[in-house]
């Protein structure tokens, strides 16, 4: 018996899903690091939640930018 190769469209779909899963993990890591960095800066400078929201918003913006770049690469 010979094994059939999966169609190219199926292989491309799995590749796209894997890339998007990687982008989701990357997004979570970037946001986590932004929150952690904001907490650290607040503790280091002894401020009361000044850097936490700033770093969190910056991290969300950066992660959205990175996801958009990945989607552009996938569509090309």
From TrEMBL:
Q: Where are the transmembrane segments?
A: 20-38, 50-68
| Transmembrane keyword on record | yes
Do you know which Pfam families this protein is assigned to?
Answer: ATPase_gene1
Q: Which UniProt keywords apply?
A: Membrane, Transmembrane, Transmembrane helix
At the top level, the lineage of the source is Bacteria
Question: Known InterPro entries for this protein?
Answer: ATPase_put (IPR032820)
Q: What is this protein called?
A: AtpZ/AtpI family protein
Originating organism: Flagellimonas aurea
